[in-house]
Structures are given as structure tokens and as C-alpha cells.
Amino acid sequence: MIDAREAVRIAFRSIRAHKLRSALTVLGIVIGIASVITFTTFGASVQADVLGRIGTTNANDVYVFATSSNSSGFGQVVQPVFTQHDVAQLSSVRGVRRVIPRGTIATSSIALGSTTIARRRVTATTPGTFRNRSIVAGRGFHAGANEVVLNERAVKQFGGNVSVGDSLTITFAGNRSRTMPVVGIVNGTAGQLPVSNFAGRARVYLPLHPFYRTIVRSPTLGVRQSAYPEVTVVTDPTRTRSAKRSIAAYLRKRSDAAQLKPGGTRLVARTSGDFVSQIGSVITRITRFVTGIAVIALVVGAIGIANIMLVSVSERTKEIGIMKAVGAGNRDVMSIFLLEAASLGAIGALVGIPVGLVVAFAATRYVSVAFALAPVWLGIAVAVGVLVGVVAGLYPAWRAARVNPIDALRYE
Amino acid sequence: MRRAETGSETTDAVVTLRDVRKTYELGGVVEALAGVSLALSRGSYTAVMGPSGSGKSTLLNLIGALDVPTSGDVVVDGRQIATASEAERAAIRGTEIGFVFQTFNLLPRLTAVENVAMPLVFAGVPRDDRERRARAVLEDVGLGDRLEHLPSELSGGQRQRVAIARALAAEPALVLADEPTGNVDTETGARVLDRFDQIHAAGNTVLLVTHERHVAARAERIVHLRDGRIDHVEALDETARGSES
Lengths: 412, 245
Known about the structure:
In chain A, about 50% of the residues lie in helices and about 20% in strands. By secondary structure, chain A is of the alpha+beta class. A 6-stranded mixed beta barrel of chain A has the order 3-5-10-7-9-8. In chain A, strand 3 and strand 4 (about 115-120) form a beta hairpin. Chain B has one domain (about 15-235): Rossmann fold. A 6-stranded mixed sheet of chain B has the order 6-7-8-3-9-10, with helices on both faces. A 4-stranded antiparallel sheet of chain B has the order 2-1-4-5, with helices on one face. In chain B, a hairpin with a 2-residue loop joins strand 4 (about 70-75) and strand 5 (about 80). The longest helix of chain B is centred in the C-terminal third of the chain and has 16 residues, at about 185-200. Chain B starts with 12 loop residues before the first strand and ends in a 10-residue tail after the last strand. At the A-B interface, helix 1, helix 9, helix 10 and helix 12 of A face helix 2 and helix 3 of B.
């Protein structure tokens, strides 16, 4: 048997002998591999960026809200369905530490000194929504106090010059207005649904009491009480999973929300981990789909290799005959041609990877997403390049191996 | 190179053919060889002559393990060609037989050394040994100064010497030449034949196929083929050691 090094030498000699032809053949693979690398790397970058923003810092928070029945569960239906009764019931679920209801209050404008901005709603919630790590300056408001907390984005809306202690005048819908001090500034992740952070919207937080006025009749208790469109349940980190199950069970069977929710909606309880995996799987699916399209380019490249290898076999019929006359077996001939095809594929992959990475990098720049490598795919790309070459070379190599040396030696 | 056991009338046959027949289906059965029996003893020099269509090429292909007989035995250095697998025949071609072709059949992109080393590549000889061996054989045929030349940079005579060196590289049991002077001028042809004399003198078994009398006359005996049979065997001098059947 021919040794591998010699077979590689013969293969590369043949590739070098037809530089332009080999280059054009390789180009097909380069385009295929580069597209695959571009899309997988871009997909990985988007995924890393998006999931990085969600983070899993509040992994023990369970977000409870209503969503459209036929959606994948991202779209929140803003309806005040969770009553004070539900909040109390959820508080008593095993493994739950505290329950933070959240609602909105309709407003018309907010003024700071001479700056007035139009604003249609502010968020009403409990002090528990503010975690220490999310507070940038000051403190959270106290329940029942006439105090306001802003996030950094909202501070920007006022030109950035808002500090703790400033007085803010909020005009509510119906033209009633109240002036209150800013007691704290939080960063963007204060107690919102993880997905809300993408929007990076300005937020203004008020305590539920005395500002929140959305009242419904609790079907269970038969009395009118406050109701909220979303609730965050903070659980014991070691019990998050079981607590989430209990919460979901309560919501489904006994909650006021189950009766109050509008038709065509369902109640969901999700952890930030659920969001991460759900968004991750959507991005992965999109990436796979687009990569699948890129694979077509690879198939075209493979056809190019097969084509050129067939040409090479018929051009070198005499050469094959000579090699067979001096002792080359069918397997020797086959491996020489397979190696040549595999080399074309491997060269294509090795050139295609940097090209793909550069294009992916440009794409991430274009959409302002942090660049992230998908290292597994680099390995896969090389393997696929070689594999494509081998598969494309199989038939031509088989043809070469079957060349009859007697006919081939006579061949001119 | 293999030494014949000089001094004794050896019956040690490198090639034995027993009632070899070869038929082709070419729109009808064509009998290329119709029962040929022949033995080539070790160290002998035999020429095969005959008009075209006499079966020379078929005989060459069978002895060269490029083809298998329809019936009969072809034994090369103790190995049956008829029953050998494709891979075994490839190995026999590589190690037992050295081909010299009319059209040289060198690989155009390989240097002289690489061409000569080619049989050793497929025989699994390590790279350093191949190279050393190829250089030595090329020096033997007087091409020590053309080692790294491509065939296109060599004259016809030089190319044929590279081909001869390639035939000898694996120290085969038999050197098989097919019209080796057919593609060179008369003067070069004479030198090529001198080379075969040397190879023979060095103890190699040589079988030369030709249609030219003066080429065949360099051998110890001439096997005349006609219509797929041995017409007669002509011994050329006292030292002829051929066995006839």
C-alpha cells in the first residue's frame, strides 16, 4: 500500500498542476463553508448577546402573566387579572419568599423643574421590586409613601440631570397632579420581565399605595379589590422548580386570574431560565434554518469537486495505467484520488473559515451585537469540508480504481 | 539484482506458461492465444517475435500480470496469475515484474528519481530507502546527473533509460520489454539494446517483445508466435539455456 504522505504529495502535485482549475473548484467550497460559518457565528453572537442581556441573575424569580394562547409565550397580554387575593394565595405557596405585583398607572406628563415630558403610564409596584444590586443611587421607595424611583433611561429623558432629592411633578390621567421627591435611581433590570429589558425603555416607579387604583371584583371572595397585570414571585433558590409548579397549578385551578383572564389567553409562570432557553431555542432554530440554506452552497461546491475530479480521472487515465503497471492496486489509485478530492475540500474549508468569520464579524458590527465564536462549528466546518470532498470524490475515485491498465496504457 | 545460478543447467523457471488460452468477446470469439506453453528460466534472455495479431501483446499482458488467462496456467516466480486477486496481481506487477514500454510511460510531473521510485512507493518501501535505491539504479544506467530532471527535460534515449531504471528499481524476477526501441532512433536503439545486454549479464531474466529481427537477435532465443500459437523457437547461440515445450 502507498503510504499516506506519498499519496498526499501526489494529490497536491496534481492540484498544483492545475492552479486555476483547482482554485475555482475550491472557491465553491470556500463560499459554502464561509456562508455556514457566517450564519452560525452570527447566530451564536446574537444568541450570546441576547441571553447575556437577559442574564440569569434573578434565576429564582418566577414571572407570572397572561399571554395569548396561540403564541410562544413572549407577548404579554396586559390585563389586570391577578387580584390581591391571588397575590395573598401565591405568598403562601411553599418555597415562595415574597410576591411582587406590578401594574400601570395612566399619566399624561411628568415635570422636573422647567422640563416637562409627555408620559402615558408609570409602573406601580411594591418596594420588594428593588434589589440592592439594581439600585444605582438612593434607595427604593417605601410603601404608602409619596416617593418616586426612576431608571437610568428615564433620567436620560430629562437630559441626565436628575439626582436623588429632586422634586418630580407627575400629572395623572384626569389632570390630577402630585409632586414627590426622587428617592432612588435604578438600572434597567429593576424587577421587570427579563424580555422587557431589550426595549431598554424609560421607567418611572411609584408605590402601589396610594397611587394604584385598578380595582376588580374577586370572583373567589366576591369583593372588589386591586388587580394587577403581572406578578413576580421571588422563590427560595433551592425550591424554584417546585414552587413554579405549585404556582402554575394554583393559577390553573383556583386563581381569580383563571376566571378573569380574557378569552384566548392563558396564564404562564416563567423563570428567567425559561426565557433564556426559549429565546435560545428560537434563535437556534432560525440559525439552523439559515445555515441549511447556506449548506446548498456547499452542495454546489461538492458538485464542482465531483465534476473536476471526473475530468481529472479521464485526463490521467494513462497515468493510472502506468501506476497500475508498476504495482499500484485499486485501493492505491482510489486513495490517491480520494485524497485529492478531500484536499480540495479541506483547502476550501481552511480558506472559508476566516472568510466566514470576517463576514460574521462585519455583520455583528452592523447590527451592534457583540461578536462571539462558535468554536464547535469551526471544527465541524473543516470536517464537513473534508467530508464533502471525500463524498464528491468517491465516484470519480472509484472510476479511477476501475481503470483497466491494459486499455489505459494504450490510451493517448 | 538477482544472480542466476551460473554453471548449472538450471530448471528454475521464473515464468511458466502451460497451455495458456486467451479469448476475447469482440462481436464474436477471438482467440488471441490458442494454447501456449513456455518457460523462462532464471537469468535467460528471450525475445518474442511475430506479426501483428499473433498474440504478442496478449502474451505480454498475461506474463506481466496485467491480465488473466481464459484457461491454462501462468506462473510468475511461483505465483499463479490465473487465480490471483486483483490486489495480488498488482503486488506481483510491483515486485516481480519490471515493465519497459515502447512509449516510456513516465509520469510527466515526476522527476527521474520519483519515476524510478514509483514501484517502490506501492511496494511499501520507506521513503529514504526508495530514494537511495532510485538514485543508485539511475546511476547504474548512466543518469546520475539527471536525477531531478522531468521527463520533458530528457531526450528519448534518456527517458528510456529512466524507464529501464524504473523497471529494475524493485529488483524484479523478470524484466518485460515491449518494443523498447520502437520510439527512439537507430543509434539510441542500439544503446538501449546494449543496456538490456548489461541487464541480462547482471543476472536478470529478460523477455523482450518486438517485431524487428535485429532487436530480437540480441536475445539467447527467439520465440516465434503466429496466430496465437508458438510457431517455433529459435536458439541463437551455444549458451542458450531456454527450455522448449
